[in-house]
Amino acid sequence: MLEGLREYAKGENQRRTLEAVIAAGGNRAAAARELGKAESTVRECILSIKGNAARKGYSPDHDMTKTAPDGYHLKGTSTLYDADGHPKLQWVKTNIDHERQFEMMQEAVKALCEDLPKESPKAIPEATAAELCSKYVITDYHIGMMSWHEETGADWDLAIAENLIVNWFKSAIELAPNSDTAIFAQLGDFLHWDGIEAVTPTSKHILDADTRFQKLVRVSVRVLRRVINLLLGKHKRVHVICAEGNHDIASSIWLRECLAVMYEKEPRITIDQNPDPYYCYTFGKNCFFFHHGHKKKMSAVDSAFVAKFRKEYGETEYHYADLGHLHHEKVLESNLMVLEQHRTLAAPDSHASRGGWMSGRHSKVTTYHRDFGKVIEHTISPDFLEG
User: Fold this and answer.
1) Containing structural domain, residue 225
2) Strand ranges across the sheet with 338-341
3) Which residues of the chain, if any, have pLDDT below 50?
4) CB 70 within 8 A of CB 100
């Protein structure tokens, strides 16, 4: 029993205590004397290790030896005993261990980033306007979603999504002035789902998915790299925001971290790695705020921005907030700032179509002067790109 607990000891203290008890033949008192600890401390430590094991399904004293796989924890067991009291059949019920799966995701991201090819510095474009900043806003792009035009009015799949966003940025970059600085504001829900199962992270609603998650990840990273390289060809500096959305809560994390590693050798790129789902960037007298819109509604988010970024707000004169989430366009000017809720370029999915939540499709590139605020805006729709 004690030897089987080794893999469930967490931390150096539990491992040392367990090994001392094993060496003492299971005698807690002898192990306590060897360790210079109270016997009760050793006993509690062993009980804690047994608890770790039991949560994974390992407790031989109770005929539990079928453990849950990594990333899951034990939900319950049912054992059928024969007439002599020996276990005959056993059902092991497991549930997702969200804490451990988050740890596994962090480990995977760390390993992935170590092997990512680092982007080499790009040639700095000539003749950019130092007094200008262009903001490219993309939200709720839902890469990986499947939409059928007979049901929703428009087709959408992985190939369509990749082709459209690249063409949109080529057009937007051509229309925008030669601004010194660019902001690539990706406001969340860039990925349609957030893990192996194509469901919403919080409510577990089943989603219309086009592909496997690994392919979704591969295409998402490739798309972002293509967009960033296009921006580097136009602007001297590029600031990237990959906001948390309600569809890609975890994926927004590894997107930020992967991009930070990819472009660590490119001094012209900055990646916002803020883990809080509220983001801020200043340019001259302009202060830009970003939030997906899933945590704070448009009518209340301005005060949250000011509370979180007091210094940036107080040192600037023009204040703008960009949100997504609801897929339709709305502009509100409060006492604190101008807030804009953006449309998406993506087609509606069956859930939106069946619910009657319809909206137009476009995204904007907006240019700001360092001293005078917003000066130029271009709105580009999928129809414009096809026309």
Assistant:
1) 118-386
2) 279-283, 286-290, 318-323, 338-341, 330-333
3) 71, 96
4) yes
